[in-house]
Structure to design on (113 residues):
């Protein structure tokens, strides 16, 4: 059974940083597309970033470019999202996704003073 478990969310002040983790079990993502997707209160899902494990190419939505960094640790089968210079508009539940099929349960990120 494939499982994705996110962690690392929390409450942070504007300008602060958080690192989200997504531990994958039941599947080795050595040849997968891994993504972070978020959902702000009262809004739909928004794609944030993707990384393709076979090439390590990364992609970001414009609003997070230069602030967020997606990465993987293949030995640990874990996906990360380093989030710096956080803004209130980054407040959302963040989900990791594998190959557009498998989803984690989400982790809440709240940016507020």
């Amino acid at each position: 059974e494939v499982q994705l478990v996110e962690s690392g969310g929390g409450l942070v002040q504007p300008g602060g940083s958080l690192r989200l983790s997504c531990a994958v079990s039941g599947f080795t993502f050595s040849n997968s597309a891994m993504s972070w997707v978020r959902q702000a209160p009262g809004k739909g899902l928004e794609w944030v970033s993707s990384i393709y494990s076979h090439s390590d190419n990364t992609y970001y939505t414009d609003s997070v470019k230069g602030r967020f960094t997606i990465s993987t640790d293949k030995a640990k089968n874990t996906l990360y999202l380093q989030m710096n210079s956080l803004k209130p508009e980054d407040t959302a539940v963040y989900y990791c996704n594998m190959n557009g099929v498998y989803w984690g349960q989400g982790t809440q990120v709240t940016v507020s003073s």
Summary: The chain has no helices and eleven strands. The mean pLDDT is 95. The two ends are 40 Å apart (CA to CA).
